[in-house]
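Bug report (template v2)

What were you trying to do?
Predict the complex of my protein with flavin-adenine dinucleotide.

What happened?
Run completed; filing so the output is reviewed.

Input:
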Amino acid sequence: VQIFGGMGFSADAPMEKAWRDARIARIYEGTNEINRMLAVGMLVKKAMKGHVDFLGPATKVGEELMGIPSFDTPNFSQLFAEEKDLVTRLKKVFLMVAGSAVQKYGPELENHQQLMLAASDILIEVYMAESTILRTEKNAKRFGEAEQATQIAMAKLYLYNATETIIQKGKEAIISFAEGDEQRMMLMGLKRFTKYTNNPNVVALRTQIADKVAADNGYTFD
Ligand SMILES: Cc1cc2nc3c(=O)[nH]c(=O)nc-3n(C[C@H](O)[C@H](O)[C@H](O)COP(=O)(O)OP(=O)(O)OC[C@H]3O[C@@H](n4cnc5c(N)ncnc54)[C@H](O)[C@@H]3O)c2cc1C
């Protein structure tokens, strides 16, 4: 829609139908709002029934927050090594936020819808970023890193954007239910768990992707 400008908005152009078809995905198999609340709500219910060990790992993250962080410089020479390390830490953000929220509110958590939505957004972004990285890694092994260079850039860019969303939603959630020292400690944890060792150059990544689309004159990633 955007690329075609004013014509993109017009019902006479084909994009209008494509946009509506894409947009319905957030409605017809259960709306975005309801599914996000279900994602966290069901996890919490399963944890309370003992079907999923959620509070155990959440407690471990809490203990890690009390400990001294490692100052070792990690070796990130392999493809996606840094990204995978970051994804592991992003999962800790979810455990920290959702675990503390469950401890604070118990079954009453479902009445705190904005908190549930924020936790769910974190969960979704971690899942999407990890899936993107693992799928791209698989393709890079199969077709070669040079051939998959644009997809690698896309996966890295996705993770960067996901991390930014997780920082924003994590902060919102933490401030909504924690105060004083507890809040400060969790915000420090958020910073530690979302930190890059080498900040990705997102402008260069976007340029790389745009150059490929421009050179191929279309969407060529099927
Ligand atoms: C093209 C299309 C195909 C469909 N196909 C099928 C099908 O094959 N099978 C089938 O069973 N159904 C189907 N549906 C129905 C679909 O599942 C419902 O439209 C959908 O679940 C939303 O329900 P609703 O339309 O009643 O919206 P409502 O439930 O009235 O929701 C309206 C808005 O309020 C929000 N909302 C509602 N409750 C809350 C809450 N507690 N907290 C926060 N926000 C809330 C919703 O997220 C939504 O944004 C289809 C719908 C469409 C449009």
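What did the reviewer find?
The chain has one domain: 53-216. The CA atoms of residues 99 and 211 lie 43 Å apart.
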